Amino acid sequence: MEEFLRKEPRLKLDQEGYRILRLQVLQRDGWRCQQCGSMKNLEVHHLNARSQLGHDCLENLITLCHACHSETHGR
After folding, report:
1. How far from 30 is each of 17, 23, 45, CA to CA, in Å?
2. Dist. CA 56–CA 21, nearest whole Å
3. pLDDT for 16-25, tens place per residue?
4. For the chain, what are the domain ranges?
């Protein structure tokens, strides 16, 4: 039971590794916001937040425009 309570460290890339991963996410998503389809002001969003041990990996990242990214975070 105790083994289930241990938190695993999240995968956090260095600056260059994250830059490369970000470009892979943008390319995978067709350089479009995955919510509204915009091709302007694109950002990469962690589906599972870094603060919640979200990894820097393709499966945890999605392309959003600035407006949709802000909306996702309640801003």
Report:
1. 20, 11, 15
2. 8
3. 999 999 999 9
4. 30-75
